Amino acid sequence: MRRSKAMAAVVGVGMFALAACGGGGGDDDDPGVQDTFKEGGAAGSGKDPEAQGPAPEIEGAQEGGTITMLHPDPDAGPDSLDPTSGWSVTDNGILQNLVFRSLTTYRMDQETGEMVLVPDLATDLGQPNEDFTEWKFEIKDGIKWETGDPVTADDIAFGIKRSMDTKDLEGPGAQYSKEFFLGGDKYEGPYVSGEDFEGVQVDGNTITIKMAKPFPEMDYWGAFMAMGPVPSGPAGSPPQYGLKPLATGPYKVESFRPNSELVLVRNDQWDPATDAARHQYVDKWVMKFDQDPAASDELVMSGNEESKTTIVTQLQGSNYQTATQDMGDRVMVGSQACTSFWYPKYDKIKELEVRQALAFAYPYEDAWSAAGEIPGVTRTMGTNILPPGMAGREEYQPVEGEEIGRNPEKAKELLEAAGYGPGDYEIAWAYDASTPEGKAAMEQIKLGLEEAGFKTKPYPYSAGSLYDVWTDPDNPIYKKINVAGVAWCSDWPSGATFIPALFQSDQLYNTGGFSEASIDERIKAVTSMPLEDQPGEWNAIDQEIMTNYFPVVNTGYLNNLFAYGENIGNFTNDSAQGYPNLRDMYVVQ
């Protein structure tokens, strides 16, 4: 799952969303200060195929009120609400949990706080055949659109077919439906190829999905909005449908200004008896995007009436200590399964030693702090591609005899081994120039690289997301840089949602263009292995990629930093999404 700009920006330069604090240590005399990085790699690994609606009541929950969420990240706001395209953390955290329903979903176990996969539109988590090449999902009765019309199995099948449209609806279906569904490599979705598709069939209330190869994790893929209903015909056609889609969840769209504001109100056609995961305690949700970070923090910390029902999704690190002392446990470090990378262009930086030298030249904690991170709390060092907590993951050091970290002298040795003296090798990258924190982090990276013997050429970019540069070969800056970046979170707790998207040849978010036939072959072979062997194999591929090729510099594992007002009831972290758990929240009246 691609992170939005705030998470990605640190890869290229800096992240202002969790802004500036010089260190990660807590105050031992203040028990409210949290100072431990939280692992999120196993989030969502539990399953309850028999869970049925209504969702268990939240103790003390009350109905009514409005919750306002402030997103300081300028790239967090969606430009479309189309469920087929949703793939960012913010999209999924809001729309998947409040507006749209899918074959399966997650709910929080109120006793353990763990996220558990449960049935949603389907009566269970799906019935696979013996080799996982066919899955059947029986659809529940009683699901309605916000219009009151019934949601049919055909509506859901149409939405699933839509996920293979990579022309008008680029989204996670490009990674999973196209890859795994039978005929998905040729089928271009219903608007181009028609509705007749061999991979998805409907018989009464049952949807059968046939696979091109074994896909034992189809129940997890079923939890994405792209695996839910969309009306066929002109009513569901892109791009118009993305401006006013039809809700199936507890809330519907009242108003939407792309990248700016989304207002959700109660959907009176949602039946809690059919929904095992969601509640409808709140009357209205107001989502504001591209908010000033300082003003957002000041509001939530003020204690005034408006602050009492406000959530800030990215508290600035500079306010961490003060906010924690004043607000106590209403400042929360939220775990997630995410890694950020600097991604050298594989066809431009060809020498292994130069790519390794970058890892020893990068000024990790100085760059994080300048960018607004809290080392040890919102970001921590790593070497593995896969984030901490994922099944099968084992720690390793990819450079023999050396622990990856800031080491300018080691960087110089590696450059010399590659035949380069101080100042011979230029590193060019794009950085977020839209904030002071982005510029400050760039300066730290520039200083660090130059101290380690590199020549530097940073290119400012403030016209939008850095992904606009990293994924667009026609962008003028793309043509000048030799290091790109990517920040990635698991779509579910499996290496299958991490390594292929970033390291298989010709993938959109393989921003460095890494391509090795042997790695492609190993990636494609994993899903044919026994399910119990796959986690270990993903770890082995992780280690082979980094040890033999070192195509990326791991610039840290990520956590969130939330703050919320005193009248927000049952605020919890959805570690499977890396976002506040909106399903179970309420307003204290």
How many individual β-strands? 24
Distance between the termini: 36 Å
CATH overall fold name of the largest domain: D-Maltodextrin-Binding Protein, domain 2
Strand content: 15-25%
Q: What class would the helix/strand composition place it in?
A: alpha+beta
Integer tally of domains = 2
Total DSSP helices:
16
Helical percentage = 10-25%
Description:
The relative contact order is 0.20. This protein folds into two domains: 5-15 and 343-558, Dipeptide-binding Protein, domain 3 (Roll), CATH 3.10.105; 48-283 and 561-587, D-Maltodextrin-Binding Protein, domain 2 (3-Layer(aba) Sandwich), CATH 3.40.190.10. Helices cover 23% and strands 19% of the residues. The chain is built from 16 helices and 24 strands. It has 589 residues and is an alpha+beta fold. Strand 5 (127-128) and strand 6 (134-138) form a beta hairpin.
Write the layout of secondary structure elements.
Layout: H1 5-12, E1 46-47, E2 66-71, H2 89-98, E3 104-108, E4 115-119, E5 127-128, E6 134-138, H3 153-162, H4 177-180, H5 190-193, E7 200-203, E8 206-210, H6 218-221, E9 251-257, E10 261-266, E11 284-289, H7 293-302, E12 310-312, H8 320-327, E13 331-334, E14 338-344, H9 352-361, H10 364-371, E15 379-380, H11 408-417, E16 425-432, H12 436-451, E17 454-461, H13 467-470, E18 483-489, H14 499-503, H15 517-526, H16 534-549, E19 553-558, E20 560-564, E21 568-569, E22 573-574, E23 579-580, E24 586-587
Parallel strand pairs: 1-4, 2-11, 2-12, 16-17
Antiparallel strand pairs: 3-4, 5-6, 6-8, 7-8, 9-10, 10-11, 12-20, 13-20, 14-18, 14-19, 15-19, 21-24, 22-23
